[in-house]
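Internal ticket #5521
Category: modeling
Description: The requester needs a full-assembly model to guide mutagenesis choices. All entity lines are attached below as received. Residue total reported by intake: 630.
Assigned to: D.W.
Attached entities:
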Amino acid sequence: MTLMTDIHPDPSSDPATETGLTARNVGVQLGRKTILDGIDMGAATGQVTCIVGPNGSGKTTLLRALTGEIGHTGTIRLGGRDLSGMAPHELAGMRGVLPQATPLSFPFTVAEVVGLDRPAARDPVPIRHALAEVGLGDYGGRFYQELSGGEQQRVQLARVLLQVRDPSGPDGPRWLFLDEPVSALDIAHQMQVIRIARDHARAGGGVLAVMHDLNLTALFADRVLVLKAGRVLADGPVSQIITAETLSRAYGCDVTVGRHPQTDLPVVLPPPL
Amino acid sequence: MVAIGFSASAEASGDRADRARLLTILLALMLAGAVLLSLAIGAAGTSLWSTLAALARGEEIALADRVILWQIRVPRTLLGIGVGASLAVSGALMQGLFRNPLADPGIVGVGAGAGLGAIAAIVLAGLLPVALADALGYYIVPAAAFLGGWGSTLLLYRVATRAGRTSVAMMLLAGIALGALAGAVSGILVYMANDAQLRDLTFWGLGSLAGATWSKVLTGLPIMLPALIAAPFLARGLNALALGEAAAFHLGIHVQRVKNVAILSVAAATGAAVAMSGGIGFVGIVVPHLLRLASGPDHRHLLVNSALLGAALLLLADIVSRTIIAPSELPIGIVTAVLGAPVFLWILFRQKGALDL
């Protein structure tokens, strides 16, 4: 059933994951419903790992389990430590999380949101810098609630970047967990966010992103994990996962995979109607 | 009275933080002024300005003036400060906890729950074992009000919050139900009360600082103070909670601990305030709202400034209540309602587009 064994060795034997993220036999139940079951996976620092899969396959739930937000069975280790034994502030020093959408209940300004909860938030320079990085350099004084969904998403990214770059945090690589980071964005800002996250990985950090768009995933990811119905269907490098066979099986839809004329990256096309 | 500068376009955030700190100083001065007025002005006919001046110069003052000052006005002023700060901070905490600017202990039934506790304590205290009643002493009414407020806050949070999000409609509807239930049970208790208890109840229910005595001050303040001291420590957690419970957790906040402490603080502050002075409405919703308009929603400033402005406004309202129809007194609850209810309506009017009902 699973393609995992022939493309991806046992994650715990992968030396890169000693500093990375591993999940062994992870399950999540919400109420009486089993959302995830028997998940084995690994993600290494220095790379971008993307989770894809059909709607309802458990992508966001897996991300929430890996960030420590929801309870799970099995074992999740981040940077060599068991997630279950870590306090919220310890986790916050090792990883930042960008949710799909973040509504705000009081009229904070954009700069206040980015600096929210940073003890060093008195210093406006890093805040301005983070906002400039996501292309919102002039937005600091505007009210967050008045921005569009895509702009709010980028403000939140600036906030998360400030969190994972906090110099007062512990040593060791920092992780970015991104839940559909580009779904609300136009194509230029999609590229901008993908570049920021790839730069974070290139600098030695870890990036784990839930993705919806398969073409952007091919561009973004080093490694892709495919979920279907709460289980891992496939896991491996982009070139081995973004294939017509695997994706057609995952989504139950006969997709065609071609090659980008310039980059030679896989390009996913829907079947004719 | 307070500089309420708000404009359609936001200012640089640093300005708002500076303004909030300046406001803290101005509000402290305003509170000091209100304390002086509260000590000097009263129904006794004698203005105590000259007495206060004499006291400041270290001179002896007349016995009658001394009694009025130390036995009536000082405890009344202290109680006013405690009740005003408690009501305003309870409001700010509850709004932060429920992530909604309309949450207020008085509006969502927590005040009614605390009131039920207080009434139950007055009427049913005789049923307690004598040893326990003696041990609790004066504390029995505020302790019962605290338990009533705590129970209602917990229940309300359970009903109105699901998966980390609070439904405003559920919160208000549950508050109406809670208020009605507490009112009905309170009514039954009033029927069961004997004459002496009825007198206590009437006195209590007026919503007044008139009954202020040193014993009330010494029972009320020890319950209010821990809540008021705990509140600023919740500022960081409440700021993060504005992004939702999941984001607060991701930022390193122990969300459940923040919620527990906030709920306990609201219950203690509201319970003690209700037990000491009956129902005084609108302080908890109007004060934090005005401060958010003036200097933004950052709880690091909002909670401290709410305590100062709440205390000052309650003292001023109390001065109005005891001078406007002197030598009689208007219950202070009427003064705060007359001033606060229109402001509350104005808040609703301004927000009707933004409210997610």
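Resolution: model delivered.
Comment from assignee: The interface with chain B takes residues 64, 67-69, 87-93, 95-97, 99, 102-109, 111-113, 115-117, 122, 124, 140-143, 145, 163 of chain A (CB under 8 Å).
Ticket closed.
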